[in-house]
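Good morning C.,

I know you're traveling, so I'll keep this short. The sequence:
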Amino acid sequence: MCVPLWRLNRNSKGRLAITPLPIVYAIERHFHLLPEKENYHQKGDSMTPTISVIVPVYNVERYLPRCIDSILSQTFTDFQLILIDDGSPDACGRICDEYAARDPRIGVIHQENAGVGSARNAGLDAAVGKYIYFIDPDDSLEPNA
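The tokens, ready to paste straight into the viewer:
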């Protein structure tokens, strides 16, 4: 299965920049290693997850449960799922909160609508995993992805 992956770099001004990697098949060989973050606590868990999965959410209530369920049903479970509600006018914020109440790996950020780039940046700020994975809310993962 082909998946989009992104690399975090610092530009000449020291700001984080996200650049796409070529489409790859072997996920574990192509994740970008992030520096360890100290004092990680996610709803009582003191272990840093291997992967932070970032999902920017806006006006996709029809597709969002399928996306989240496909992530949660993976056999690999050492991940943090960050859902960023980008001021969605539909029920997306409520859906995100309901999933977060059921699974301690899920965190939700609610913000005013600022666009997908801002939502991804908010997710990056909250990410504590060694690796970052972005998925759009109208997509879903195949089993064992």
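Safe travels,
E.
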